[in-house]
Design goal:
The chain is α/β, with parallel strands linked by helices. Helix content is about 20%, strand content about 30%. Strand 26 and strand 27 (about 400-405) form a beta hairpin. The termini are far apart. InterPro entries: ADP-Glc_PPase, ADP_Glu_pyroP_CS, NTP_transferase_dom, Nucleotide-diphossugar_trans, Trimer_LpxA-like_sf.
């Protein structure tokens, strides 16, 4: 079956609900699982599906994302594959930046003319899932789709936070409602598996993953269908073009808030996490050539470690520890994500900091950290105590912020010895 596809990853979002993690980087560049970036997920899904023509559209805070993609994805000279960046640009025909997801693709279509493709796969850069796109493409082709939307069954509680699609028995989408009110849901149930019916998951939520037949998408853009896929393009396609729902039954989560980001990372520590890092479909990322992690005298339970860590903590429990993390003796880390560091401090700097009473990069002696996210390159002094929870009001507090009771220490922040938060 012809799968002549080009994949487009939308990587330009501001990600305001993930602040302060998105203060210096775009959402797809946020580190996840100790050693990856969010953008590695859609790119890896493409590569594992045999789709190796990938473009990443960037706009906001893109330097970190551009650097990561440039250093991570290389193909040999005999391969026709690529992972390239298409940065937002102004030109004589259009002086405005991207006005939405669809506008980003519309403005980029002129750059796609040099590629041979029949279908366009549109992906978000900030979701966690493992999916074989070949199955979705086959569904699109076999059923003569103009547009196919990946959907996932959700319950009534979650349905009000998504774009909800109603489909008929043949998978044709008949209506679409963006974040419907609870009292509208009764008429929006779709045909789902018996297992999902028993779980109360009878509503189909859009996953923000789309396949368009090239000629149809060009036609929609020529008709001026709007600037956003979810708000404009998809609703306008229903009833006019053959718009299909492809139901996905696996794990999928949208990393839209600090709380969802925190929960997705800590879920990786479970005995049987919903997102399986240890599968035959690897997640690709930058090869950093770091040494193995070293752990000395620590009690460790349900923890995930990146590479190049030096751990002397008393206890690490239900936590993700990122690359190059240093945790000194007597410290306890519980229910937290420590992102680690971009580089190692040299011995001279460490000695000078010790003499001057300045915290070194990493976590010092006798600290207690619970329900927190520590962004990269933080310097946490000795005897620092961070205890997140609903007892702390949400807000920005300079070196850290609090959302949904989760304390987020900002990138490069310095917490002096004896600091107490919570």
């Amino acid at each position: 079956m012809n799968r002549n596809v080009i994949s487009i990853v939308l990587g330009g979002g501001r990600g305001t609900r993930l602040f302060p993690l998105t203060y210096t980087r775009s959402k797809p560049a946020v580190p996840i699982a100790g050693k990856y970036r969010l953008v590695d997920i859609p790119i890896s899904n493409c590569l594992n599906s045999g789709l190796n023509k990938i473009l990443v559209l960037t706009q906001f805070n893109s330097a970190s994302l551009n650097s990561h993609i440039k250093n991570s994805y290389h193909f040999d000279i005999f391969s026709k594959g690529f992972v390239d960046i298409l940065a937002a640009e102004q030109n004589v025909e259009n002086e405005s930046w991207y006005q939405g997801t669809a506008d980003a693709v519309r403005q980029s279509m002129k750059h796609l003319e040099k590629y041979d493709y029949d279908y366009i796969l549109i992906l978000s850069g900030d979701q966690l899932y493992q999916m074989d796109f070949r199955e979705m493409l086959d569904f699109h082709i076999e059923n003569g789709g103009d547009v196919t939307i990946a959907t996932i069954p959700v319950n009534a509680k979650d349905a009000t936070g998504f774009g909800i699609l109603k489909s008929d028995d043949e998978g044709n989408i008949t209506s679409f409602y963006e974040k419907p009110d609870y009292d509208m849901l009764e008429g929006l149930k779709s045909e789902v598996s018996e297992e999902n019916k028993h779980k109360g998951k009878e509503f189909l939520a859009s996953m923000g993953i789309y396949i368009f037949t090239k000629t149809i998408l060009k036609k929609m853009f020529d008709e001026g269908a709007g600037d956003d896929f979810g708000k404009d393009i998809i609703p306008s396609s229903i009833g006019k073009y053959k718009t299909l729902s492809y139901q996905y039954e696996g794990y999928w989560t949208d990393i839209g808030t600090i709380e969802s980001f925190y929960e997705a990372n800590l879920d990786l520590c479970l005995d049987l996490p919903q997102f399986n890092l240890f599968s035959s479909s690897p997640i690709y990322t930058r090869a950093r050539m770091l040494p193995p992690s070293k752990i000395n005298g620590s009690y460790v339970s349900k923890a995930v470690f990146g590479d190049g860590c030096i751990i002397m903590a008393d206890k690490i429990e239900n936590s993700v520890i990122g690359n190059r993390t240093r945790i000194d003796k007597g410290s306890t880390i519980v229910n937290s994500y420590v992102m680690g560091a971009d580089f190692y401090q040299n011995t001279t700097e460490i000695v000078l900091n010790d003499r001057g009473g300045r915290p070194n990069m990493g976590i010092g002696k006798y600290c207690y950290i619970e329900k927190a996210i520590l962004d990269k390159n933080c310097s946490i002094g000795d005897n620092v105590k961070i205890i997140g929870g609903k007892h702390i009001p949400d807000g920005d507090y300079g070196t850290y912020s609090v959302q949904d009771g989760i304390v987020v220490v900002k990138k490069g922040a310095i917490l002096l010895p004896g600091t107490h938060i919570g």
